[in-house]
Amino acid sequence: MLGRQRRSEVAMKCLRNESGSILVLATLMIVLLLIFVGMGLDTGWLAYNRAQGQPAMDAAALTGVTGIPTGDPNAIKTRIEELNLTNDYVKSLANPIDGTVNGPNVTLVKYDPATQTITQVGSLPAGANGIRVALEETNPYTTDTSGTSINTPTFLTPLLNLFGANVSSIANVNVSAVAALKALPSMPVVVTGCPALESTNPWCNDQVDATGNSVPKLCAGGCTSSGGVVTGTNCQLIRHPDPSDTAGWTNLMPSGPTSEDAVEELLDATKSCEKNNQFSSVGQPICLNNGNIPPLVKRVDELFGNDGWSQPEDCFLIPYVDQKISTINQCETLKGWATLCISAVQSKNPFAIYGDLSCPSDLFNTSTQCYKPVLLRDTKSGM
User: Fold this and answer.
1) Quick one: pLDDT at residue 158?
2) What are the pLDDT digits (tens) for 297-350?
3) Under 8 Å between Cβ of 347 and 151
4) Within this chain, do residues 152 and 274 fall inside the same structural domain, yes or no?
5) Distance (Å, rounded) from C-alpha 383 to C-alpha 367?
6) Distances 312 to 4, 62, 237, 342, 363 between C-alpha atoms, Å
7) Fewest Cβ atoms nearer than 10 Å: which of 48, 92, 125, 260?
8) How many angstroms separate the CA atoms of 133 and 89, rounded?
9) Which is nearest to 221 in space by CA: 320, 343, 366?
10) pLDDT at site 160
């Protein structure tokens, strides 16, 4: 009887013995801790690899977009692929950027600054004002699958597989960049008003002066309108000895000299676009001058007329001010931009500059002498 009671007490004591149970809890906590630490480490590792890949995309987009004015897709491809040797993202040698236009990594796009939207365009640079460069699994603009994302190994996140999850040991890091060409003012010429079809506009319509005499329109070839842009052909912009307040010279800045030397310096810099990054914005003043016409007209002819006119490189972005200003010899508010394509220069008396004048001009959709590549937000890709 006593033996049976003794055995029962021993059995109950064993059942109540909780020694060692902390090992089970500690093991579970350690595994969970490793998983959370691993997720943090792997997330940081993925962010680091994206940070390594993003500069490569930015550089490729900024370089490649400069090939658009050539009209040659191979120029875009060459400029992008020249950077491959300097890229240092994960597996960059095994996964270089393919510069082929509308290939796995490069898409021609058109940026609309009015709506801030980016859309894909055809396979030729004509019509495109930007490019998108990406290493990714799927292109959101074309839905094409390229499978060229940066394959990044993860280390501890796969421990989730111990809990029944299906986690790969390789993560796909998508990186992309979009760059567009932004036109820069490239000729220190200013016009008053903007070619428009209204009867009071002297560019497109004959006028009557204060004495009742008829004044022919400044654009002898007439004006046409398309997509909100009015283009006047064979327009007379600057003339001497019969100066008018319809065109003149400008320093493109809200202050500073507009002397012959200052304007000539800007003309000389136009060839290399050296001084075109500093200019007033719409709504700010620019300083004007309608003197010194003969020597400056001669300089325009010397700089740009040696290969004839009506060349693509003879188109320039110029500012326009209000049509109703009293005189072109002071600072006036910049109203917007126009495109001047010079067709002829009369560098002997009477001096004059002739060309086609289009207005208003969009800085992102204007063929001009000078431009700069700028990065844009690739919101469709979350970049």
Assistant:
1) 63
2) 999 988 888 777 767 678 899 999 998 887 888 899 999 999 999 999 988 888
3) no
4) no
5) 28
6) 111, 22, 19, 10, 17
7) 48
8) 15
9) 343
10) 60
> Is 10 contained in some domain?
no
Instruction: State pTM to two decimals.
Output: 0.78
Q: Which parts of the chain sit beneath pLDDT 70? A: 1-21, 35, 38, 155-170, 242-245, 275-276, 310, 312, 383
Angle, alpha carbons 202-205-210 (nearest 5°): 60
Tokens of 267: 């003309």
Spatial CA neighbour of 218 closest among 241, 247, 240, 198: 247
79-124, pLDDT tens digit by residue? 999 988 888 777 878 889 999 999 999 999 999 988 999 999 987 7
Please check whether residues 214 and 349 belong to one and the same domain: yes
205 and 73 in a common domain:
no
- Give one DSSP letter per residue of 295-307, joined into a string: HHHHHHHHHH-TT
**Are residue 103 and residue 200 in the same domain, yes or no?**
no
- Is residue 76 domain-shared with residue 29, that is, in the same domain? yes
Is residue 276 situated within a structural domain? Answer: yes
Question: Whole-angstrom Cα distance, residue 9 to residue 278?
Answer: 95
CA distance 31 to 29: 5
Domain that holds residue 310: 189-367
Residue 248 within a domain: yes
The total domain count for the chain is 2
Listed in order, strand segments (DSSP E) in 81-228 are 106-112, 117-120, 130-135, 150-153, 170-173, 175-183, 189-192, 207-208, 214-215, 223-226
Q: What is the reported pLDDT for 359?
A: 92
Asked if residue 195 and residue 210 are part of one domain, the reply reads: yes
Cβ atoms 73, 126 nearer than 8 A = no
Question: In sequence order, what DSSP letters do the residues of 58-117 get, joined into one string?
Answer: HHHHHHHGGGGGGT-HHHHHHHHHTTGGG--STTTTTS-----BTSSSEEEEEEETTTTE
Q: Which two structure tokens, joined as six digits, stand for 351?
A: 């001096």
What single DSSP character describes residue 379?
G
pLDDT of residue 76: 94
